[in-house]
Batch of 4 targets.
Target 1
Amino acid sequence: MAGATTLSDLASAIGLRTEEAAIIAELKAGSEEAFSWFIAHYNQPVYSLVYRILDDPADAADTTQEVFIKVFRGIKGFNSNSSLKTWVYRIAVHEASNCRRWRFRHKSHETSIEPEYREDEPFAMGIKDTLADEGRSPLENVYDEELKARVETELKALAEPYRTTVILRDIEELSYEQIAEVTETTLGTVKSRLVRGREALRKRLERHMPAFGRSPRGAQDQGRRVSGPVGGHKVEVMP
């Protein structure tokens, strides 16, 4: 049974690589259908990743457009040493980081004339887009939504590069190797940043746990582990 499972997984992986190779070939050939598929498939994931790094819907939208421009311009030079997703995410993280630096240099003293961003606007509820479990009580669902919001808020407060590393691992579910490729760093650096990022997030969350019926001391006694759902995923926070 284990051998069959392994063979099945291998066949599936080969199939995915073959499919991706065909898509890349179409993109390099300038196929409009391939580009349309690419945008439909990657627009929301790229926006979500960029938005969590920038925490600004307008900047995230502009940066997402810039990411796709860079992809379209650079696709012919893509050598398939990494997966298409890893390559796209590397561009997205790079562009988001550039935007953060530009904003820090040029916008820190500006006064915005835009209306105040409200939490009920599109994409503001990024962590609240998962369906509630119908088997849970209304009060439990309220607690879940509040916990999601708190995790998202504290995640945004993490310093870079720890925030991006936690996002890529615990939300985007990239492997350590993929994160190293995306962030253009070593595997050891990725693991170090992830440990430090999770620890910083755990410390920020601990003081809020009693409000959700969880004991910070209990979390410490059980391996100092606190977790919360973000965008449909579990963020694991441990030393």
Target 2
Amino acid sequence: MPLPDYLVIFGRSFLFALATLLPILNPPAVAPIFWTMTEGASAATRLALAKRVAMHVGFMLAAAMLAGNVLLAFFGLSLAIVRVGGGMLVIASAWQLVNSPDGGSARVARSAEPFSPEMARDRAFYPITFPITCGPGSIAAAITVGASLRDPDHITSLVRLAGSLPGVIVTALILYVCLRFAAQFLYRLGESGTSVFMRLSAFILLCLGVQIMWEGLQELLVHLLVQVHHATAAAG
């Protein structure tokens, strides 16, 4: 295959990975949730945490895309199980955000609490990176992208995988920019607008968790019904 064809495959793989992962990750919707969960942190701590979260997300997406199917097969897990378990984690985290107090003395007290760099390191992966920022939906999408890029021709498969990695890097960079400038965005909304937007984002996250878990349950139920049908047909 000539070099221009490989370049076209590389570009298509890049756009495919970017167009698949970015809407599911949805960095603008994550920014206010990130700001809420790091309330009381200094600007330097938030900046360092934004970098750490973006790096974690990039590594998770790349690992899921390159080796997700192998790991699931090794542990005997299916994407449906990942969706159910991850959806439950998203629901639990979103429920805490929806029911967290806002405004008045509770908000002032929460803002006065120190959010140290040690706390930032402890919470960088769980729950901020997973499942809030990069949940089971994003991981399942990355695994799907990795499976879609496979090709019987090993060279073509390598070119597709190589093209998808810059898509993951660009996605992580866009996430970092959104987290980095979350304060400026929320400042324009004002205190009441920020509170409403945060509540709405947390509710949307809750709905996404329910949808992720329901999709996994549906797949498991369909698989169960198929097994029952085959067993009944064999017995008959």
Target 3
Amino acid sequence: MHTESIDHWKHDHSFGQHRRKKGESRTLAVTAVTAAMMVIEIAAGLAFGSMALLADGLHMASHAAALGIAALAYYFARRHAGDERFSFGTGKMSSLAGFASAVILGIVALTMAWDSAAHLIAPVRIDYDKALPIAAAGLAVNAISLAILGFKDDHDSHDHHEHDHNLLSAYLHVAADAVTSVLAIVALAAGKRYGFAWLDPVMGLVGAALVTHWAVGLIRASGAVLLDLQAPQALRFRIRAAIERDSDCRLADLHVWSVGPSVYAASIAVVTSDPKPADHYRGLLSHEAGLAHTTVEVHRCAGHA
């Protein structure tokens, strides 16, 4: 057999991961902004005695690390997209980075809860006049970061936030920062005006609970991809319907799993009394967006529809 004929049947397994994603540049920019504000908030929280402000700064520190992981994941996925050691490309790097970031988010939430509880039991003096402007500045930075990461202007399915757990993790880290900043401002303002010093650590606990909820959600979503859970039922239904609409075909086996953001691979076993080449069945699925790699087994079942 000629080498040319073998090469004709080979195909690319990078699934678009070699292209630089818009999310990569956004994440790099937000990482730099977050790191700068992190230093300011931690220093201010320690200097002014605000638990909510310190929690916000520590939370932002975790975000700087998590955003750095996200940026590195984009680079790694792009750099090694064609590496044959990765059977289905580097698309799952997005979910791996998202999972790691979610774990960091959860750890910081527990730290926030612990420290807030300690300050609720043993209150410390808070310099409200100095802490409030810093908290407001932190919120402004969060708002700018959220605008940079924005959801609305990206229509490339490979960058879609619903599936790109790396970009989703970056967004959640910044959103969590924004919520924590709002809670800090509310606590500081109420403490200054009404003397509710207890509200500062209470807001820290509220923020910790919310961040924990987000972290658990991201762990579940990214973990499902890493563990090769079946693709959404709607996609599997469409694949089955497309195959079984052809003559007397039946699907004996169907596995569909994610190999990257909005990219799926499928393994199907077709049983029919009138077998056709595998490419025929792949052609029946050619309209299915996101189905990038399909393995087909065809089995004859004489006399049975």
Target 4
Amino acid sequence: MSKHDSTRRSFLARAAVGAGAVAGSGLVLDVYTQTLDEHKNEVATPGQPHPTSVQHGAFFNYDQATMIAAFTERLMPGAPGKPGARDAGVLNYIDLALAGAYADLQDLYRRGLAQLDAYSRTTYKKPFVQLEATQQDEVIASLEQGKASGFSWPTAQEFFNVVRTHTMEGMFADPIYGGNRDFSGWRLVGFPGAQGNFTPVDLQNKQIFTRAPATGLQAQAGLQAQVKTSGRTE
């Protein structure tokens, strides 16, 4: 993993720790909602029908899914022993969110991805997913700095900020929301999850908490379902 990748990973991990680790969904910033309201009368780019194949997802079509997978992996690249966006299932988190709680951001993603790919093709003569990692980083940096041409709504920076926020959510939210697979994000930053109890030693310890994350909401829901099923069959 390059020094650039390591720096980016460290930044997002520190941000997650500073926020106490993302515990849930619903973290759309007001600026994004305001931007959507300002453009709600625009004619949105026609979206393709929601595919039913698990390979495509609940909202994204195949091309959109591969772009988001590549984009988020460059934001949070994996390394040996250190999970990245692909390992944590960030794509799945964003896909499910856009089909549900974040449905109001569907057009933002459609238009943002279309503009991103157009910029990539204009600049490098290739679609975003076919670029080398260093080229993808350059494209993403252009978005972050607002230098990418061809963006109207969302602007390049708006789209970058939305995807980065959702990448962090997908890495560090409870696995019930579709990301943080196998608690990989929590393990990365040493977040213990919802432990059943902390011993007096735990409470006094000033070192990084190393115990494995406790059962999350997703597993708890599954356990409750098993108990109910067991109760019906007895």
